[in-house]
Amino acid sequence: MQKLTKPVGFWLCATIVILGLIGCDRFMNTSGDVVERVSDGDTLVLKDASGKNFTVRFACVDAPEIAHSNKEKQSRRSSDRNQFTWGVKAQERLQELVQQGGDRVTLNITDSDRYGRKIAEVRLKDGTFVQQVLLQEGLAKVYRPYLNKCPSKDLVQQAETEAKQERIGVWSDTKFVNPWEYRSLYKNK
Predict the structure, then answer these.
(1) CA gap 135, 47 in Å, rounded
(2) How large is the C-alpha radius of gyration of the chain?
(3) How far apart are CA 45 and CA 98, in angstroms?
(4) What is the pLDDT of residues 39-78, one digit of tens each?
(5) Which residue in 104, 92, 88, 90 sits closest to 36, CA to CA?
(6) Reported pTM
(7) Alpha carbon of 98 to those of 131, 186, 187: distances in Å?
(8) d(CA 158, CA 162)
(9) Using one digit for the tens of pLDDT, what is the confidence trace for 108-125?
(10) What is the mean pLDDT of the chain?
């Protein structure tokens, strides 16, 4: 009996230690960058290791716009209401994904833009590629002018193709205006 007790005790202790480490990681959630805020359907504000906030714009995609000013929020123009309705849906879905990931994301920074934002592919702790999800659900479109800077361009194009074929999200809306066209045609008018 004594010979059996030693190995059982060892494995019991080892199991407790391993489960404790897994639990600590789950409760402390120490991997990835902390998401401070979801700005819209394709932009996050994160906190770096020194506690300073920085903005990340999603590589590869463009999500519908959201209303930023009171004037935009009160707009009666159908193009605004349509764009902002889809923009809110994209923003809410992104918030759900971020919460699912424990308010942390992993970045693959590909560039920076003229506003000083980092451009990045964004993944959750479990490896979920956020841009791919938004595209699959029809809550974003591939932004082709910068697709050459997108390491996962094949994945995003495939995700968009599937949503388009299935007429999901913005692909089901014949009145939807691409976000880049909306900004060009309607913003600041």
Answers:
(1) 26
(2) 21
(3) 12
(4) 999 999 999 888 999 999 999 999 999 998 898 889 999 9
(5) 104
(6) 0.81
(7) 12, 30, 28
(8) 6
(9) 999 999 999 999 999 999
(10) 87
